[in-house]
Write a structure and sequence with these properties.
The chain has 87 residues and is of the alpha+beta class. The protein is 18% helix and 30% strand.
């Protein structure tokens, strides 16, 4: 689930400033949830690449991220920072 709000403010120098607040809850990566996870990241990617993402971005949430091994083609986004094999 992605919930967001775009807030238009004025800076101290009287220049327009847009703040995008995004809250994300990602389903747990278990068998049967693959389509939900794909849909979530597609929605998030669309939001962040669109016009709403200009300005300051504040992103928070529960992304159910995993770190560590194994290496399964996602090396560009998951780093090898765990001390043990991932469960």
């Amino acid at each position: 689930m992605v919930v967001w709000a775009s807030v238009n403010l004025e800076s101290r120098r009287r220049q327009p400033l847009t703040v995008l607040l995004v809250s994300v809850y990602a389903p747990t990566a278990v068998p049967g949830h693959e389509l939900d996870i794909e849909r979530l990241y597609r929605e998030l990617t669309d939001l962040l690449s669109g016009n709403e993402a200009r300005g300051i971005l504040i992103l928070g949430g529960d992304l159910n991220a995993r770190i560590g091994l194994p290496r399964d083609g996602r090396e560009a986004v998951l780093g090898p920072f765990a001390r043990e094999v991932r469960i």
